Every structure is written in C-alpha cells, then in structure tokens.
Fold carnosine N-methyltransferase.
Amino acid sequence: MEKSDVATIYHITIPLTRTMALDVYERVLDTEASGDQSGIHDPNCSDEQEVLLATLASFFVYRRSAHYTFTYRRRRNFYSLPRAQHEILKKLNFQGTLDKLDECIEKNSAFAEAILKSGCKSFGIDPLSAENWKDLADSGDLDKARSTIKQFLRDWSKEGAAERERCYGPILKAIDKYYGTVVPPCEIRILVPGAGLGRLPFEICSRGYATEGNEFSYHQLIGSNFVLNATNKADEHTIYPFCLGFSHHRERDNQTRGITIPDVHPGTDLNKVLEYHVTDDCKTLPPGIYRYRPSQYFSMSAGEFVDSYNIEESKETYDCVATSFFIDTARNLLKYLETIRNVLAVGGLWINNGPLLWHWEGADATESRMAWESKKTEVKSFDQVEVNVEDAETPLFPPPTIMPQRALSGTHQHDVRHLLSHLGPSGFHGNHATSHQPDPSASAHQHSAEREWRGSLEFSLDEIYQLIQMYGFQIIERGSTKTGYILDEKCMARYVYDAEFWVAVKTHDVPDYISASFTTKPAKKRNDEDEDFEADVKDKGKGKAPQREF
C-alpha cells in the first residue's frame, strides 16, 4: 500500500505467499510434533491426497482421453462403413474434419498441461511424475477437467461477457447500489461462496471491496489459481471449448472455433492503485487521501462452505455474501442459510442470482456409510448436472496398446508411494491468490461428524423465500434474469434459465425453532501465529463488520 502525506488506511495484508492450496494442507500438518514442513504426515490424509492427485491427473490425461473418446472412435466408425458410403463421406472431407478436431484437442491439451504444471508447482509436485498416478483419475474427474476448460469461456473470455453480465451483472450493480458510497470501499468485506474460476470475486475486488472467494472443487481451485497467478497478459491462451460436442452445430466451423483467455489480465487490474478522499464526515476513519491496491484485499479459501464458515470465529465478519449459481449445490439448504446468517453482520446483505438445478437431486440419506464413503466427495460440476448431450459419451481411457503413454517432457519420474509420502505445501506462487484458514481440524474434503447426512433436499422457489424469512432475512429487492450457463450462442439448442435475483438484509432475531437448529462450531484453539494475526486485526481496527441499515 502506498502512503499519502495525510493518512494511511487501516487494513490487513495477508501474505501473498499463502494460498488456497497451502491452506488445505496446513490443516493436516502435524508441524508441532515433527517440526518438518516437507509434506503431509497425518496418515488420515490419504483420501485428501488422492482427490488432489486425481484432479491433477485428469488434466494430464486430457489429451489421450479426448482423442480416444471423441475422434479415434469416430475414425473407427468411419472406416467400418460400407465402401460406397465411405466414399460419400470422403466428398464431405469427413477425415479432414476429424483431423481438425484433433488439432483443437491438441491445443486444449497444451492448455490443460499448463494448468497441470501450475497446480503441481503450487503443491510442490513434479509434473513429470504424473505418469505414475494418472490412473487415479476416473471418468468423473475427466468430465470435471473438460467442464473446467470449457468454463473459461464463460468466466474469462470476451465471448462470455454477455453471459457474465446476465449472471454477475445484477449482483455487481446491487453491491455498488448499497455500498458504493462507502469510502474507501475496502471497508466493506464481501464473501463469495462457490467462487469457481474466480471471476465474480475478481470483479468485486477490482472495484475496491475487500473480497474473499470460497471454493470446494480442486478442479476449480487449480483453474482459478492458474488464471489469477500464472497468466502474463490478456488473450495469452487459445482454447476450443466446443470441439468435444458434436450436436446442434449449424456449421462445422462453429465446433472448431477458438477463443482467447483471459479477456483481461487479472494481475494488472488487481495491482492498479485506487485513491479515495475521506472527508471530515467519515465516522470510522480520519480525513485524508487513501491509496491501496485491490490485490491487498483479495483472497481465496479452499473448503466446503458450511465447514469453513459455520464456525464461531466467522460470526458476523462480513458485510455482504454474494452467491451466483450456488444455492442449488446444497445437499441441505438449511445449512447454507444458517452459515450465511452466521457470517453476516446484522444489517448485512445476501445478494443472490441463479437457478434451482439441484445438484444432488435424488441422493439417499439412508444409503450405507460404506457406499457413500467410496464415492467422490467433490460437488458436481454444473455442466455435469445439466442434461447435456455432450455428456452422453462417458470419457474413456485408451487401452495401452492403442495409444502411446505420453508424458509432458523428460523422463525423470517418482514412484507414486514416494510422492504421497512427501506431498506437501509450497504455496501458489503468485500475486493475487491468498488463503483463509477457517478450520484447521479437518481437510477440505474430509467428512466431519456434522456432514454425515448424505441425502438431498430440494425446494421450490416459493418455499425458499419462506425459509429466507424464517432464517431472519428481509427481502428488500427481487427479480429474475434469463441466462444460460456456458451458452453457445451459435448452436441450435440452448438451455436457458429464469435465474432468480434477490437482495436480503439480515435482521436481529430468528424464531426459537430456528435458533434451536443452529450447529455453529466453537472457535478453534489458537496457536501463537493465530494470536499474532488476531492482534494485528485488532490493532488495525478490523473487528466484526459494522452494522448497516438499508
């Protein structure tokens, strides 16, 4: 932060070497006992390690899986046709089309491997060892990798600007409407659960607000770290988001068209200096000129939303919670409502925009513990849940005899057991992603006692509005927006949602039957580092968020 001659702003600068990935692993390190920071030593962390490696592996095997699933299969179908039909399709240059699609897959694969290398660097993993643990990725992991690459279209391309305006625009306008007069805006703290690839928290923070994104999916976390910390300029990468879907194309060129990302360079925007003049009328700060960079007030946290924020130390720490395409990821919406209420200051706002495509619809709470423990625990991608013909073909691994096993480069590899025993935090080395430590007692994907209920409850919109009021929120604004999700404007079929928008203010009281259901966890036991951090918070005047009225 640059100091002016008059005054300096009170703020907390979270060290930029602390990261999303580091946070996940710090929670399971037994550093006091071992004094060793080289890796994970808690034997209960094997599941966490496997989820991480499966995520990284899905980007590693993207190339061979995409070729085998989409173009190799069609070549077999093409050559199995009767000779006369084979000749007809040669007139359409069908072979040339498959060659062009293979080129698109190759370029997407280079992008996937760039994400892989960035993620491996953040966790201190040698990407050349990926051949040893590639089999940890299953078809669900491959689907998430494909969906993540495609989501860059929505969040970080010029072509996605219209959809972002429909999805994020109402939220950003409401934030400016209710908080735009606060000077400096970093006095307002905003939490964005389900941050995905980080575009919404980026947009909020670039306006000057203190912003924290929260995300549970490793695919999304690694993808957001890549775009926030590992890109060097706008339009640096070209991807082909539609090349793996063969339905609804008016022209073949629509399927093979490329888009560039990112449309803006996050580092440039987040490091620009903002300047604000505080007058004598301000009740919280002395008058003066205040300058800061948005990056000083931007962070991302890794973890499940309820486990991370429905804790005593998060109580009333945010002025605003902004949710976009998020609430329908809940297995139990009541826990989301309780957590949002917990983190908001009295008078704080919950701003929402999104549909009701319940991601866990049909999940059975009576299913045996062994059955659900054997399943992946990450939230399903929106693309997975949406009925999409692109998902009709389950990604497959090619047999070893069909395609060569291709490593990124070089030949140096480590045995996977050696890797697992030494996998540890090295940090996301960048300027714009930092970490939050909501709960050191459990890893991001670990099952706590409170999360053993594995069913799903789905509500209609009118029921949700009733629940919002029961949980002590007053609706002060509502509307709807027609939007898609990663919508291809040039295709012949589109999924369009009437996304529901609302602004709700947290009131003081809730009925006894609601408060009786609250399960907020007690504050964690503090170590010396935590006490130093809290002392810094107190010294700089950043306690609970102030109460505001609208």
